[in-house]
Amino acid sequence: PPLGPAVVGEASVQRETDPARLERPRRDRELGDKAEQHVVRLEQEAGRDASQMSVNYPGYDVKSTDPDTGEVRFIEVKATRGAWGERGVELSATQYNKARERRLAYWLYVVEFADSDDPKDTRIQNTAEKATKYVFDGGWKALAAPDDSVNESAD
Question: pTM of the prediction?
């Protein structure tokens, strides 16, 4: 199988107090919304019936149906302000599980330069099957078992 992107798991949760950083979620939602609207337009221009799901809809952002074949795409949209770089984009556990469940019907659209007048999109079908490795960042240290712990049962 072809090589694909890594699936990244994060485990750290931090309380943010910096006012400039507290503003970030709103800006990120606005950027994501703009990217989702871009994807809906792309799908409609391709002759598909596409609609943006409600905010925080579990597993995907856009549902798109081909009126001739009935083929449905469940599309997770990731937006970047600049070029899609080494840091990558992340799927939540819910999004990854939806990708595993929907397989060929699940798509990841990464919209680069999403806040510009000329966004660039990359479309990847069946992301769960194409992931070739799972990367655990340093936040996972918080979940480590103590050295003297008993192993969890595998049954």
Answer: 0.74
